[in-house]
């Protein structure tokens, strides 16, 4: 079964990950928010993650952590870790 849902009206650039073991999709977008969707229940968690466009999301292969990074407009980009 293919499930389709809208993440945001703004673009999502290079920053979404499917996490099979948690049955969810994590997406960061140009509105600086990260969204976590359970694709079975369609539950979603939304939170403001950065002060600039989110360009990268990485998922730890075994631990429940996601790392995000913003567009690098300064010397170094910043990232936050969230528990999924």
Automatic annotation (TrEMBL):
Q: Name one GO cellular component term.
A: COPI vesicle coat
Q: Which UniProt keywords apply?
A: Repeat, WD repeat
InterPro entries associated with the record: Coatomer_complex_subunit, WD40/YVTN_repeat-like_dom_sf, WD40_repeat_dom_sf, WD40_rpt
Keyword flag Glycosyltransferase: no
Q: Which Pfam families match?
A: WD40
Report if keyword Repeat is assigned.
Answer: yes
Give start-end ranges for the coiled-coil region(s).
none
The lineage's top-level taxon is Eukaryota
Entry-linked Gene3D superfamilies: YVTN repeat-like/Quinoprotein amine dehydrogenase
Q: Which GO terms describe its biological process?
A: endoplasmic reticulum to Golgi vesicle-mediated transport; intra-Golgi vesicle-mediated transport; intracellular protein transport; retrograde vesicle-mediated transport, Golgi to endoplasmic reticulum
Entry protein name: Coatomer alpha subunit
Can you name the source organism?
A: Coptis chinensis
Upper lineage is: Eukaryota, Viridiplantae, Streptophyta, Embryophyta, Tracheophyta
